[in-house]
TrEMBL record:
Keyword RNA-binding set for record: yes
Alphabetized UniProt keyword annotations: mRNA processing, Nucleus, RNA-binding
InterPro entries reported for this sequence: Beta_Casp, CPSF2, CPSF2_MBL, Metallo-B-lactamas, RibonucZ/Hydroxyglut_hydro
Residue span, Beta-Casp domain: 209-329
A single GO cellular-component term on record: mRNA cleavage and polyadenylation specificity factor complex
Cellular location(s): Nucleus
Stated family: Belongs to the metallo-beta-lactamase superfamily. RNA-metabolizing metallo-beta-lactamase-like family. CPSF2/YSH1 subfamily.
Annotated signal sequence range: none
Organism per entry: Quercus suber
GO terms (BP aspect): mRNA 3'-end processing by stem-loop binding and cleavage
Name of this chain's protein: Cleavage and polyadenylation specificity factor subunit 2
MF (Gene Ontology): RNA binding
Amino acid sequence: MWSVQREPLSYLVSIDSFNFLIDCGWNDHFDPTLLQPLFKVASTIDAVLVSHPDTLHLGSLPYAMKQLGLNAPVYATEPVYRLGLLTMYEQFLSRKQISEFDLLTLDDIDSAFQVMTRLTYSQNHHLTGKGEGIVIAPPCGWASFGRHLNGIVLASFVRPAVLITDAYNALNNQPYRRGEKENEFGETIKKTLAAGGNILLPVDTAGRVLELILTLEQYWSDKSLNYPIFFLTYVASSTIDYVKSFLEWVSDSIAKSFEQNHENPFLLKHVGFCISKSELDNAPDGPKVVLASMASLEVGFSHDIFVEWATDAKNLVLFTERGQICSAL
């Protein structure tokens, strides 16, 4: 058992007398006491900006709007809106499987997302009233998508005064070793599978998991591997269906490849979708890779698979991000 918690990500930024709430996060523990700082300022917020579609960045938005007095316009890009909604559905469905989860309802989630203003790529959105003179300009859709996004073009901004990215890794100073890390990641997976072991990748619902899926797809093609890969969440197929339509947010190389080959990178050849544990259980026997929610192992499919597979030393659990691990058992 372990009990490390990552604090929810929410920041108060004031420009003159205009108060922005940057993100409205929670973590997989869903402890209301963690939201006390937000409760103290919720009624003073003039606008909310949501940067990522994961629980750490938007998980408390429905609760804050229903219980904490947050009543302000909410802005997000189209991908963050779509994938964030799926993230919250996944959280709700996962928790309802194990307890009478009463902090949120599906109606609460829908209500919070229905009032979002969805911004398109590089759109300059001019605020009015108290926010007169402030322009919101989203440079990219989901920063967690890593190398599959274009870089930020500062010249596209209208007189930028504040550039807001994310403080998730503000205190995490690690050397840049992308190629080395990816090679180590792939070789570790291949070695475990060759020895007859299964691999569990606890993942978020619709954030960095998308980059992991593309990375595995490429590695499987490069190495001509035939081991099955499964993406297991309640909303797995819906997540990929949404992402197929978001090519304007990804890198030029992916977009050009689509234009030339008419092949969407998310028409996956090696990754299959499961929306229930029974579907995974009915898969053929043998070594496999499973990307399953939740990333923290707090609840959800990853928790159930971890408990089931942990007794076999051949199996491997790979955590692909520095995370909010709450209580695995």
